[in-house]
């Protein structure tokens, strides 16, 4: 498999993460519109995933999905990012468990973030999390990376701040959408919240706990069947490819 990956090391502001941790779970009053909002986000994220896979001619994304413990799907409409935007945005999270892909659960971004950017005009795409501990950190603390952690973006031409101090368990792969696997990633230092109201409306789990939905009950809610089926098919294809090649996507 061609290796056109470069490494990004991002040192996130721990103070910012800690200051936001107390508010990283938000449950709005229930309304009849929550289910519709959740379904619309699932449908848009499903389209995003399918479009990304359609562009995956070399199978690199499928190979990553076969290894990932979780994925943040960050949809966009036109050139406007839902997630990495000024003021607000939405994304959803799925997890790969011993019973297959579960979820999704919903997240939002409520503050202006900061990060590294390399020639990216649109910041929608997929964040593939390789370690379950990191995925749980995202859900609990509202930050994408723990302290110093490495982000690998596909098809990048430059390296920034690469050091040997990154956490091995901090690997997150960024795959851009709609323009193929393009260079660049921008990650916020915090401000992410669990949308507990949407979680409850979509899954029926009282309180909308993302850990309960993804890991304890391992739910596959009605309305997410196509999304989860696409992930399962991509995982199977990627696993077969990895076995055939006798290689794995490099972790360092």
UniProtKB/TrEMBL annotation:
Supply the name of the protein: Lipid-binding SYLF domain-containing protein
Q: Which UniProt keywords apply?
A: Signal
Q: What's a Gene Ontology MF term here?
A: phosphatidylinositol binding
Record has Signal as a keyword: yes
Q: Indicate whether Signal appears among the record's keywords.
A: yes
Please indicate which superkingdom the organism of origin belongs to. Answer: Bacteria
What species is given as this protein's source? Pseudodesulfovibrio indicus
Q: Which ranges of the sequence are coiled-coil?
A: none
Which InterPro entries does the entry link to? SH3_domain_YSC84-like (IPR051702), Ysc84_actin-binding (IPR007461)
Domain called Ysc84 actin-binding: residue spans: 111-234
Q: Where does the secretion signal sit in this chain? A: 1-21
């Amino acid at each position: 498999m061609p290796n056109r990956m470069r490494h990004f090391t991002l040192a996130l502001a721990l103070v910012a993460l800690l200051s936001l941790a107390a508010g990283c779970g938000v449950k709005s009053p229930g309304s009849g519109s929550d289910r519709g909002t959740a379904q619309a986000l699932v449908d848009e994220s499903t389209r995003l995933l399918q479009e990304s896979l359609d562009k995956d001619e070399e199978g690199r994304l499928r190979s990553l999905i076969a290894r990932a413990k979780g994925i943040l799907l960050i949809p966009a409409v036109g050139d406007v990012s839902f997630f990495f935007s000024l003021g607000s945005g939405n994304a959803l999270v799925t997890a790969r468990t011993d019973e297959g892909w579960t979820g999704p659960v919903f997240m939002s971004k409520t503050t202006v973030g900061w990060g590294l950017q390399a020639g990216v005009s649109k910041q929608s795409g997929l964040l593939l999390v390789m370690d379950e501990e990191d995925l749980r950190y995202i859900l609990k603390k509202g930050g994408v990376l723990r302290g110093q952690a490495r982000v690998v973006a596909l098809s990048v031409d430059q390296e920034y701040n690469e050091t040997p101090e990154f956490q091995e368990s901090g690997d997150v792969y960024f795959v851009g959408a709609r323009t193929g696997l393009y260079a660049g990633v921008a990650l916020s230092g915090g401000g992410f919240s669990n949308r507990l109201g949407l979680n409850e409306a979509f899954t029926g789990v009282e309180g909308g706990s993302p850990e309960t939905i993804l890991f304890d009950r391992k739910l596959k809610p009605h309305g997410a069947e196509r999304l989860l089926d696409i992930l399962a098919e991509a995982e199977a294809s990627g696993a077969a490819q990895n076995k055939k090649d006798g290689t794995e996507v490099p972790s360092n």
